[in-house]
Amino acid sequence: MSEAIKLFIEDARAVSIEEAAKIMRLTFKRTGVEHPQPCPHCFGTDTFSFNTKKEKWNCRAGGIGGNDAIGMAAHCEGLDIKSREGLLEACSIVLDRDIPDEGERESNEDRAARKKRLEERRLQNQADAATRADSQADFREKERAKARGIIKAATVLRSVAAPPLGRSYLQHRCNSFPDASWLRVGANVSYWHGQDERGGPLELYSGPAIVAPFIGRGLVEIGCHITWVDLHQPPKFRPLLFGLTKKGLACGLVDWVFGDAPPLAIDLADGLYEQLPTKKMRGSKKGGLIPIAGNPDARRWVGGEGVENGTAFGVWEGWRGDSFYFAAGDLGNLSGPAEPSSRFAHPMLKKPDAKGVERPVMVAGPVPKRDQDADDAMWVADHVDELVLLADGDSERVMTAAAMARARARHARPRRIIPIVWPRAGYDFSRMAVETGE
Question: What 3-state DSSP class applies to 33?
Answer without folding.
Answer: coil
